[in-house]
Amino acid sequence: ERQLIFALAGRTVPAGALPMDVGVLVQNVGTSFAAYEAIRFNRPLIERVVCVSGRGVKTPKNLLVRIGTTFGDIIAFCGGEQDSGKVIGGGPMMGVAQYSLDAPVTKGTSGIVLLRQDEVAQFVGEACIRCGRCVRACPMQLSPSLLSVFAERLHFDDAERHHVLDCIECGCCAYLCPSRRPMVHHFRRAKAEIRNKQAKAI
Questions:
Q1: Using CB atoms within 10 A of its CB, is residue 1 exposed (0-12), middle (13-18) or buried (19+)?
Q2: In angstroms, rounded to a whole number, what is the distance separating the alpha carbons of residues 4 and 61?
Q3: 3-state SS track over 19-54
Q4: Which helix H or strand E contains 72, and what residues bound it?
Q5: What secondary structure, in 3-state letters, does 73-88 show?
Q6: How many C-beta atoms surround the C-beta of residue 21 within 10 A?
Q7: How does pLDDT run across 153-178, given as a tens digit for each residue?
Q8: Measured between alpha carbons, how far is residue 174 from residues 1, 15, 59, 105 in Å?
Q9: What predicted TM-score, i.e. pTM, was given to this entire model?
Q10: Whole-number Cα distances in Å, 161 to 28, 105, 142, 150, 157
C-alpha cells in the first residue's frame, strides 16, 4: 500500500507511520465489499473469494467459499493433486507454504497456489555474499542483507533500529538472492519478536 500511495498520491509514508498519517486510507475491494454487506444487509463476513491456481490444479477457479472450508476440500473441488509438491496459501511471492491440507480458509485467504513436484526444490540458505542485489530490489529502500543477518543472530533490537518493521514481505530480496537466504522468514521472525516485546512493555 505504501507503493500505491506514492504512485497515486505522490505521498511518502514515513518509517513507523501509517497511511492515515499522510491523509490516505487504502482499502482493498474485498474489505470494502464486506463492509458494504455488513452495513447494508447486516450480513457478517462468512465467505471469501479464493483464487485457486497453479500447475498442480486441473481447473483453476475463483470460488466463493465459506470461511473455515479446508484447503483439501477446495483443491478436490478444482481437481487438484492431493500430493502436490507444495501448497501455498496466498500468492506465489508473499504466500505461506502449508504443511497440511486441513488448513482452513480465513478472512485473509486470497488464494491457493498448487505447485507440482517437478516445480519444487529444497534450497539450503548459505552465508550472505554482500552482492547488493536485495538492496537494489527492495521497494522500501531497506537493507535486507543486513536485516537478515541481525535476525539470524537474534539481534532484534538492531533489526528494529534499521526499520525491519517497514518490510512489506514482498519477497523480492529472497527471490534475487544468489545464496538462497530465507530472508522473508527472518524478517517475519524479527517482526514477531519486536511486536511481542512492545506488547509486554504496555
A1: middle
A2: 27
A3: HHHHCCCCCCHHHHHHHHHHHHHCCCCCEEEEEEEC
A4: helix 71-77
A5: HHHHHCCECCCCCEEE
A6: 11
A7: 999 999 999 999 989 888 899 989 99
A8: 20, 22, 30, 26
A9: 0.69
A10: 30, 35, 11, 11, 6
